Amino acid sequence: MLAYPQIDPVALALGPLKIHWYGLMYLIGIGSAWLLLSRRLFAFDPSWNKDKLSDLVFWSSMGVVLGGRLGYVLFYDLAAYVQDPLLILQVWKGGMSFHGGFIGVMLANLWFGHRNGKSFFQLMDFIAPVVPLGLGAGRIGNFINAELWGKATDLPWAMVFPTDAAQLARHPSQLYQFALEGVALFAILWLYTRKPRPTMAVSGMFALWYGIFRFAVEFVRVPDAQLGYLAFNWLTMGQVLCLPMILGGIALIVLAYRRAPAAQGAV
Known about the structure:
4 strands
């Protein structure tokens, strides 16, 4: 068993102002995404400058934060937030939904593309390869917060998390998700986009592989206490929300190559 590293969730305290690692992870993910997108900007559209890119990143980030928070409220714990709506503002305590953030990003890019002469999938294909940077950073934030841990196990890398009342050795599922949704997904998409791909194909690859990775990790991750398992004593809300992503990703890839076998129109 490995010892859980005791990390204060507060990275910096300046009087009443507290800066949490969880929030810093979002800033790190967004900043890293902006830097890598700036390297691909000329290939995407030579007429765009970095101000235009900054606008895209800003609105996509707003989609992540607002969509992620509202998605968690709607998908995972609606009753608690109806009882105390002010809880919605306490984002430093966690409670973000990837699927909600994903919907938020899609809506933001649909709006931004309409205003800037780009199709929805042109923008989504452009940003998809850097999204795993934010996902990976977010999972490190979950690990520092000692939240979203896994089931009990006797594997040698199991950990006892300080937030676990039972004090059992558990799967560090946050690190599994960091490795898969962050590192592996980034590598897959970055290598895949080294050559031109048909429009929609990159978005499809993102949806497919994220769905597969998240669905797999959910088998060893403890479901949210207020929801538990939805069926069969193993099906979680995360898995239910990933199924449309997997099927949609396959459909987008097939459609992309049927429509444009010459792989034109993508970065």
